[in-house]
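Researcher: I'd like a structural prediction for the single chain below. Treat it as a standalone chain; there are no partners to consider.
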Amino acid sequence: MKTPLQRLLATAAATGLLVLAAAGAASAHVTVSPATAAPGSYATLTFKVPTESDTASTTRLAVYFPTDTPLASVSVQPHPGWHFKVTTTKLAKPITTDDGQVNEAVSEVLWTADSPATAIRPGEFDMFNVSAGPLPGSGTLTFKALQTYSDHSVVRWIDVAQPGQPEPDHPAPTVTIAAPSAAPTAVTGTSSGSGDSRTPLILSIVALVVAVLGAGLGLVRRRS
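Model: Treating it as a single chain, here is the predicted structure.
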């Protein structure tokens, strides 16, 4: 039979694991890094794709590039075990570059797993790289994405966050264009995917466990 202290320890551990699991699930979005890039630069955009399903693997990722602020140059890094298809669209207003006018721009990149063995399995993630530029002078680039699973379900990462509103359930990956002096010193992805944002939550969990342990020890001492 468990002592009161053992029961308290078990409850504290279970509570901590449940809260940490919830925090991990909330941050498991399709994201893009860097979250901030300099205007006029060429950036390597990394799309991080976690598989949130417990039973199905990620087999496809479609990323839609903005056409209102088109990128003149987009090249895709080959990814082992996956093949990709690039779709372009004719621009209503051509882009003027150092090499002349550009009449077409990339509107979609679609990655597809070559086989079930190379799909992103439950509990895993993968990353897909694109080089793009030159980036516009200001604003935010939104890359809406569709994530397809082996059971044919589709998660639409297309919701655009609104100022002053809570983060939507399925936020679209975004990159903010800002001068280097205004950029964060360390950026690894969108704010929704950053591990640093979970630090206050983890510290709170630790404090809760310590408080429960303290209460348990006091109870045991009084009983003894």
